[in-house]
Write a structure and sequence with these properties.
two-stranded antiparallel ribbon
Length: about 300
């Protein structure tokens, strides 16, 4: 996981990601096996059984088994381009929303929102959003929800690009390298994990909205009395001070937007890079010498 992604998660959640330095391999393999689709698990078992019952040193047509040169070159050229396109889209996305949450625009949203802001002749201007689910939800829907709803299609769009590329890679990979039982092992394993991958992507996409809501609500998690300001513009600048603790931005919404844009971008790049790493592993195949692993297994069972 890239440091930029860790940092964006820390900003949105207030907590750091801690990874186990020494993962348990047995547990990982067990989890992996439970993630596989049943039909593909059966096919994988059949290929393994055919291989173990017919260990031929000449199996495979080349030194590298399940290696597709065409698919490898396509992946090597295409994934960096998708990453570059994603960065460009998110640069434009950030610029657009930093403008939309300028102090003047935030003030307009507050005034046109009806009862989000209140003016007292003696005390001044104050935000009326209280620490309750109804008020926070209404305020979120009128402001940050628009930002999040605009980010989700970008994530879906870039993931769609990856899925289109994945289908092309599979076509070349299966056509060039899946010719016998041993060369079908990796393609079969890859196919068996697709359902789990899709569930993972859906979960990551939903985090855009769930994390945004939690961070938004945290700014109003207080029982302190309403704070009044001399002008409506000053009130607008101080909404969501929780997101802008060091006053690095002109208003709190700009701070929130900047942090959210970081997270949305890094989440999307993380998914793209994950698929790039996945296909870098699968498309390189394995060498003929690694078939000794299967011979050892067969001997031990005998």
């Amino acid at each position: 996981m890239e440091e930029a992604f860790r940092r964006s998660i820390r900003k949105m959640t207030g907590a750091s990601i801690r990874l186990n330095a020494c993962p348990n391999r047995s547990s990982m393999v067990a989890d992996l096996s439970q993630s596989m689709m049943v039909t593909w698990s059966i096919a994988l078992f059949e290929h393994l059984d055919a291989l173990l019952n017919n260990l031929d040193p000449s199996v495979g047509n080349s030194e590298q088994i399940s290696y597709s040169e065409t698919a490898w070159k396509l992946a090597d050229a295409s994934f960096p381009q998708i990453i570059a396109d994603a960065n460009k889209l998110y640069d434009e996305f950030r610029a657009k929303w930093m403008q939309r949450f300028s102090t003047d625009e935030v003030l307009r949203l507050l005034l046109e929102g009806g009862d989000f802001i209140h003016h007292d002749e003696e005390k001044g201007w104050a935000l009326t959003v209280k620490n309750n689910k109804q008020d926070i939800s209404a305020f979120y829907s009128a402001t940050i929800h628009l930002l999040v709803s605009d980010a989700e299609p970008l994530f879906v769009r870039m993931h769609g690009r990856v899925m289109q590329l994945q289908e092309k890679l599979c076509k070349y990979w299966h056509g060039e390298s899946a010719v016998d039982a041993v060369s079908k092992l990796l393609p079969c394993l890859e196919s068996s994990l697709r359902e789990k991958e899709n569930a993972m992507v859906v979960s990551l996409r939903s985090s855009l909205n769930s994390l945004a809501k939690k961070r938004f609500a945290a700014a109003f998690n207080t029982k302190a009395p309403a704070r009044y300001y001399r002008t409506a513009a000053s009130c607008a600048r101080n909404v969501g001070r929780f997101w802008n603790p060091h006053y690095a931005y002109e208003n709190g919404f700009l701070a929130f937007t900047d942090d959210f844009c970081d997270y949305a971008r890094e989440l999307t790049l993380h998914v793209i890079e994950w698929y790039h790493s996945k296909w870098s592993v699968f498309l390189r195949g394995f060498s003929r010498g690694q078939l000794n692993l299967f011979e050892t297994t067969a001997s031990a069972e005998a």
